[in-house]
């Protein structure tokens, strides 16, 4: 039987049971403990029912305020506001349409599997019609790798209407200007050369088609590339350049420096920004004619502070100048507007009716993490917006939808290289040394205080005073060691003396890893997988093996822990020409011990200081105690140092590279200091777009403004103490203030661009970029000074923990459950960890033995381009040292679509012992990391595979009851990560499973009601329905209507040559004759007609007569054919009966299921559509539509093509379930004094015919049919009788008006209410009906598949009710609105309304798409 779980429950144990109830105990280490099922009940929780997520209403302007706040034309507006934000779940594109009151929704969330990303970042632009967006996105840590920053971003096209995402098989630059959209439907994607390639690659994208043109390769560096009509324009070193199809650059206009933010306008011009290299920015414009001719002098439009002036554009091409901008031109071009005193970063809506002033995290903190971020919760943002028509300021708090679109372009996709077995968890073929998901290789996540303490000790060379790890520390099996010992990482001496300032190294930990040693899912105090950079070496390759522009990720990064130590961390033998692997135990210490990782990072940073210092690269006074003076060392830490000794190999160049040069135009020239605004105030939103700053500026920004970090669950703290600067009070624009000196941590932008490194930002003679070398090696190797009095004006460290402080204690979050308190001695337990795996968490011994085996299946895998079989699902499988026995795993819940199948993980708990009795099954759920509301467990039992669906969401470590089952086998339990509607947001947890054998009898009863529309149904409607003015008033009217319409067409002469308005074409005559024959054979008598020929049959109202349920057993086709019934529901009850004949309270279980069947278009309607198309060439209407809750009330949207199938799926309304409740034979709830003799349940469900949702505003099927009818009527060759038939089809079957027959179709419903009793019988509740139902249609009742009557007795016929169409068609109750609706199908049903009313209170004039909550018709107090 196909079932869909609705709701189930278990009771609580009411009486103590004897020890003899339990079977012989399983072998276990500790025999002490409780010996009865009663004792376990305090340890077992009833499982929460599975819940399939329902959409929430979006934030918007209140409907009654829209005219006032938005202006009178808001309803007809085509304007769309849009913005972006990123968090741990992905890079979100948010949109809001004016016609919806700017109701914000997530158009798409972009992310890729396989990254432990603390945040996703990106850039986006919108096409001229406002319907499409182009996005470049990546994990935040890509900005730490120059090659990934230059050309490693993922790219995608998003349809902002539908949310459809097209992944593009190309990577691109993450620089602030990329992508660049034109005012049409094209955009330019830029791939920068970075440090290693001597050029730039530009690719034009046809956005709606998602098609990439042949790339154009440019020698040299260009930025801010955009399309203007069919030509690419870009920024060169000293002006705007035109890019030819062959990559040749042509000067268009000169500028003082590298122009930026090139923006096409609607008149074919180009607006852009220029600057003086110091303080002032200017907005300039070239006309379309100037662009074509070149050699032009751009017009200066406005100017303002360099870091206070911005530029944005509507999708249609009106350019707005924002920030502290002042107009200097006498007259502005028609497509340019100055908006003074607006936020510099403001964004225009697509039609310019709104200005998005800013987007910031609603909690006001650092962008990268929140107290809930570890578990994939998207982060709410505050969107500030101004309605331009009214100048009203609006604010919205928007929670983005989590990951909905993952995986790169399908055609070009490779998969992670993993290993050669679908069940191997620890990959034997890995490249990185320390594996993921090894329970003996777990890293403790340190608290921020621990990281700061370790940094303070390491820089002072006192770490070993406190840290001496004993052998087998934390049961990790490592030998004894000290972090700064000779065989680990002794602190290097700095050239010139001194030491590393605390906040410099802390800033590195913030930028590199978010101060994490373990994966992002691991809360401080908990253990988990070590944080590893691109462990799988995931290769999203573009298919061209000769293409050196694509980042080759086949080689894993293997960066571990807080400081992302990479060199020497590959497995021995897998170095591939890189540095030799360290000894394995040293590698493990780096990966698993935060103190060792920090010591290693300190060693690397010190080495970079020594390299640059010894090479003569000093800053200011060279004092290592001053933060600014670490600029070169940090530069080299990220992108390397090229020693002078190798200058001959590099064309004479040496020093620090070009990628992180502040003068590199890849960085936004208008950027403020990282993490603060131009006035020196904190600006945490900067962390959302770190791609605007070079690495060293980000580290020093964090030194001044520490990130927020998780200290404990729901507790955020400052990651560390901030550095400090001398000076007075005041803002950063006032000389002499502390903020002024702190702002000076960022050097002048052009300081590192001089003739000394062949760089000239204003060299118009070098249009290919400020770096005048063809090999991009404008490497810097000279000392610099931008603070003459650095001893006073430079930044200073703050050491929080001196050498007297011992190691900060580990966090204690989420302690594991390591006991078997109140678990019966005969319980069989299978954990996900074997007996021989010691706990990494303290004080967690195992007082039990494994009663079987736990295994994981990652599916069949797939072949990558190299012919290797790989398993992408392993990428999304994670471990945490928590839950039962300090270890559980999880994967993210996903719909079983193409991606979900690739990432499907199935866990199996297989028990060794054969159980030949009923058994209680429970699973352990951890106190965190189990977030799915839909976990589907399969249990192999004596009756086959049973399914239980529960919500794993909850608090505390707990055993959760799945139910009682009958076994004659070795029990097997399975769970995978498939979740209906799942999008990777929530976790499905795999922990321990338990079976408790019980002596007793297992009972299972299934009662099912099926509603069947019989072709013998009398369709004479109630007299009150006459006002509907349709042929459906009675059988005679229907017969006459059909005979008249077919007769009028058939009376026309047959067309002999061509179709005219005075003859009937062959296809139409054939269709009319077929319909007429059906009508004549059916006649008008309800029952006196041939089988299959009746009025309900030719209308396709009735179910097929061949599927009339005449047998004493339930037909199987009800499970497979939604056209064989109208609605059906079933309730399955199970429990254990003890030897005394009473039910074991707590083993009761009920599963509720319902489904609404399909409605079918009449065959004559489909024939007429086809005939008119064949005879007149008028295409039949497209009857494809989408609606929610089709066939099942699951909140999901289903798309159906009625044109192809003729099917209109019925809508299922909200069902209501009560029970199971244990009672005695008189209906009294079981208690200590009342025996449990029966189990009571009640279930109410139903829906509507398929026409009603099809003509609702949601589906709008009336529109295409109405348009088709209008086309038929306007065709002069269509005879009047033919277009009258077309008009009738539209009016009678697809009318969405208030008096439409099908729009107002009342619900059909069923309500089962019965007792399943221990003596084996089904009982009708005392004083209540076993089945109540709507007036229509016929009802059939079954018990365990055998016909049953309304008294609960099995009989020879399942037919228990005959449909009453007369009452069902009564739209107006005689006594409405007072009293019971016993004579109408509308309004809310009650205890006494019989077959009248409905459980949802739907009335005659409710909207066709209404979908309200339900309630029982019968209110049985003992069940509620």
TrEMBL record:
Domain Golvesin/Xly CBD-like: 906-977
InterPro entries: CBD-like_Golvesin-Xly
Record protein name field: Golvesin/Xly CBD-like domain-containing protein
UniProt biased composition (Polar residues): 434-443
Keyword vocabulary terms for this entry: Signal
Ranges where the record places region Disordered: 427-448
SUPFAM superfamilies in the cross-refs: Calcium-dependent phosphotriesterase
Lineage: Bacteria, Bacillati, Actinomycetota, Actinomycetes, Kitasatosporales
Segment forming the signal sequence: 1-29
Pfam family, one: Golvesin_C
């Amino acid at each position: 039987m196909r079932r869909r779980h609705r709701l189930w429950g278990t009771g609580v144990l009411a009486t103590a049971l004897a020890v003899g109830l339990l079977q012989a105990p399983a072998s276990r280490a500790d025999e002490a403990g409780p010996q009865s099922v009663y004792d376990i009940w305090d340890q077992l929780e009833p499982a929460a029912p599975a819940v399939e997520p329902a959409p929430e209403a979006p934030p918007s302007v209140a409907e009654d305020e829209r005219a006032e706040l938005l202006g009178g034309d808001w309803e007809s507006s085509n304007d769309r506001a849009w913005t972006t934000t990123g968090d741990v779940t992905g890079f979100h594109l948010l949109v809001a349409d004016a016609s919806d009151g700017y109701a914000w929704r997530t158009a798409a969330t972009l992310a890729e599997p396989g990254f432990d990303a603390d945040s996703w970042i990106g850039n986006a632009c919108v096409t001229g019609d406002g319907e499409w967006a182009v996005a470049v996105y990546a994990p935040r840590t890509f900005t730490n790798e120059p090659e990934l920053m230059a050309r490693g971003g993922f790219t995608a096209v998003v349809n902002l209407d539908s949310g459809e995402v097209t992944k593009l098989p190309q990577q691109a630059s993450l620089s602030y200007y990329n992508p660049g959209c034109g005012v049409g439907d094209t955009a330019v994607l830029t791939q920068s050369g970075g440090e290693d390639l001597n050029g730039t690659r530009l690719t034009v994208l046809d956005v709606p088609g998602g098609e990439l043109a042949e790339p154009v390769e440019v020698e040299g560096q260009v930025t801010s590339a955009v399309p203007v009509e069919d030509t690419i324009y870009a920024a060169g070193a000293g002006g705007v350049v035109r890019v030819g199809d062959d990559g040749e650059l042509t000067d268009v206009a000169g500028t003082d420096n590298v122009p930026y933010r090139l923006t096409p306008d609607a008149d074919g011009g180009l607006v852009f920004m220029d600057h003086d290299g110091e303080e002032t920015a200017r907005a300039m414009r070239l006309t379309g004619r100037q662009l074509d001719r070149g050699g032009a002098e751009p017009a200066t439009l406005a100017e303002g502070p360099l870091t206070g002036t911005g530029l944005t554009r509507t999708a249609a091409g009106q350019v707005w100048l924002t920030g502290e901008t002042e107009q200097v031109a006498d007259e502005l071009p028609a497509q340019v507007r100055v908006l003074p005193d607006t936020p510099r970063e403001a964004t225009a809506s697509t039609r310019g009716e709104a200005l998005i002033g800013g987007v910031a995290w609603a909690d006001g903190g650092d962008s990268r993490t929140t107290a809930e971020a570890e578990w994939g919760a998207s982060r709410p943002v505050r969107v500030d917006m101004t309605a331009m028509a009214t100048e009203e300021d609006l604010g919205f708090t928007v929670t983005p939808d989590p990951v909905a679109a993952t995986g790169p372009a399908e055609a070009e996709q490779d998969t992670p290289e993993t290993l050669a077995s679908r069940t191997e968890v620890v990959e034997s073929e890995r490249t990185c040394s320390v594996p993921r998901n090894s329970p003996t290789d777990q890293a403790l996540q340190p608290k921020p205080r621990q990281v700061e303490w370790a940094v303070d000790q390491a820089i002072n060379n006192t770490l070993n005073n406190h840290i001496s790890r004993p052998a087998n520390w934390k049961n990790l099996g490592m030998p004894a060691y000290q972090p700064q010992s000779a065989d680990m990482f002794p602190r290097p001496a700095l050239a010139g003396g001194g030491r590393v300032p605390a906040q410099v190294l802390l800033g590195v930990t913030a930028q590199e890893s978010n101060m994490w040693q373990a994966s992002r899912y691991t809360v401080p105090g908990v253990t988990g997988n070590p944080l590893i950079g691109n462990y799988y070496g995931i290769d999203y390759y573009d298919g061209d093996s000769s293409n050196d522009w694509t980042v080759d990720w086949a080689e894993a990064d293997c960066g571990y822990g807080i400081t992302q130590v990479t060199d020497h961390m590959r497995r021995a033998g897998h170095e591939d020409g890189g540095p030799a692997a360290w000894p394995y135990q040293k590698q493990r210490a780096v990966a698993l011990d935060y103190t060792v990782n920090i010591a290693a990072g300190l060693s690397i940073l010190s080495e970079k200081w020594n390299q640059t210092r010894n090479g003569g690269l000093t800053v200011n006074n060279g004092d290592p105690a001053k933060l600014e003076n670490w600029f070169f060392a940090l530069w080299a830490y990220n992108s390397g140092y090229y020693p002078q000794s190798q200058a001959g190999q590099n064309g004479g160049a040496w020093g620090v590279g070009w990628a992180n040069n502040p003068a590199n135009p890849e960085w936004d020239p208008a950027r403020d200091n990282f993490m603060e605004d131009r006035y020196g105030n904190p600006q945490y939103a900067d962390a959302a777009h770190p791609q605007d700053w070079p690495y060293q500026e980000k580290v020093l920004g964090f030194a001044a403004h520490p990130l927020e970090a998780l200290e404990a669950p729901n507790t955020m703290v400052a990651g560390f103490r901030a550095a400090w600067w001398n000076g007075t009070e005041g803002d950063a624009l006032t000389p002499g203030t502390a903020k002024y000196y702190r702002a000076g941590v960022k050097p002048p932008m052009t300081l590192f661009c001089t003739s000394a490194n062949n760089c000239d930002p204003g060299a118009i003679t070098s249009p290919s970029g400020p770096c005048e070398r063809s090999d991009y090696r404008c490497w810097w190797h000279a000392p610099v000074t931008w603070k003459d009095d650095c001893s006073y004006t430079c930044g200073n460290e703050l050491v929080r923990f001196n050498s007297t402080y011992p190691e900060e204690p580990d966090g204690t979050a989420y302690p594991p459950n390591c006991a078997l308190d109140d678990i019966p001695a005969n319980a069989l337990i299978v954990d996900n960890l074997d007996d021989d795996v010691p706990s990494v968490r303290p004080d967690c011994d195992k007082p039990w033995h494994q009663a079987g085996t736990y295994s994981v299946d990652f599916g069949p895998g797939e072949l990558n381009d190299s012919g290797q079989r790989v398993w992408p699902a392993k990428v999304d499988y994670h471990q945490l040292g928590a839950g039962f026995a300090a270890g559980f795993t999880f994967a993210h819940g996903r719909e079983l679509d193409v991606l979900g199948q690739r990432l499907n993980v199935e866990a199996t708990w297989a028990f060794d012992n054969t159980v030949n009795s009923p058994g209680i099954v429970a699973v352990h759920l951890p106190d965190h990391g189990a977030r799915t509301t839909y976990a589907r467990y399969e249990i192999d039992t004596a009756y086959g595979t049973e399914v239980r669906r529960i919500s794993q969401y909850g608090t505390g470590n707990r055993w959760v009851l799945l139910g009682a089952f009958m076994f004659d086998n070795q029990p097997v339990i399975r769970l995978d990560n498939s979740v209906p509607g799942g999008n990777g947001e929530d976790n499905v947890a795999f922990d321990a499973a338990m079976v408790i054998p019980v002596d007793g009898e297992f009972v299972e009863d299934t009662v099912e009601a099926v509603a069947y529309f019989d072709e013998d149904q009398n369709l004479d409607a109630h007299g009150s329905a006459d006002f509907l003015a349709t042929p459906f008033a009675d059988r005679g009217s229907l017969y006459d209507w059909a005979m008249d319409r077919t007769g009028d067409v058939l009376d026309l002469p047959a067309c002999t040559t061509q179709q005219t308005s005075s003859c009937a074409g062959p296809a139409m005559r054939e269709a009319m004759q077929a319909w007429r024959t059906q009508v004549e054979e059916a006649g008008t008598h309800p029952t006196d007609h041939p089988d299959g020929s009746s009025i309900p049959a030719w209308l396709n109202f009735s179910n097929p007569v061949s599927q009339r349920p005449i047998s004493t057993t339930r037909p199987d086709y009800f499970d497979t054919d939604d056209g064989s019934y109208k609605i059906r529901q079933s309730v399955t009850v199970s429990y254990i009966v003890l030897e005394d004949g009473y039910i074991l309270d707590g083993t009761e279980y009920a599963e509720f299921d319902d489904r609404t069947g399909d409605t079918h278009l009449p065959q004559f309607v489909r024939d007429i559509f086809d005939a008119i198309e064949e005879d007149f060439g008028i295409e039949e209407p497209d009857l494809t539509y989408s609606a929610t809750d089709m066939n099942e009330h699951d909140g999901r949207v289903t798309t159906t093509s009625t044109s192809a199938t003729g099917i209109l799926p019925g809508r299922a309304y909200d069902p209501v379930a009560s029970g199971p409740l244990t009672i005695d034979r008189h209906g009294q709830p079981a208690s200590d004094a009342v025996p449990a003799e029966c189990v009571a349940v009640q279930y109410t469900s139903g829906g509507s015919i398929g026409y009603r949702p099809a003509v609702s505003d949601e589906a709008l099927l009336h529109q295409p049919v109405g348009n088709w009818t209008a086309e038929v009527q306007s065709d002069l060759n269509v005879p009047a009788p033919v277009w009258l038939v077309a008009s009738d089809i539209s009016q009678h079957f697809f009318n969405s008006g208030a008096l439409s027959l099908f729009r107002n179709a009342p619900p059909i419903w069923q309500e089962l209410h019965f007792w399943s009793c221990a003596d084996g019988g089904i009982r009708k509740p005392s004083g209540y009906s076993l089945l109540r139902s709507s007036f229509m249609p016929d009802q059939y009742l079954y018990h365990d598949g055998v016909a049953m009557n309304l008294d609960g007795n099995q009989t020879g016929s399942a037919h228990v009710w005959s449909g009453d169409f007369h009452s069902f068609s009564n739209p107006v109750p005689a006594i409405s609105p007072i009293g019971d609706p016993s004579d109408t199908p509308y309004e809310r049903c009650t205890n006494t309304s019989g077959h009248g009313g409905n459980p949802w209170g739907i009335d005659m004039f409710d909207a066709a798409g209404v979908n309200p909550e339900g309630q029982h018709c019968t209110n049985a107090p003992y069940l509620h």
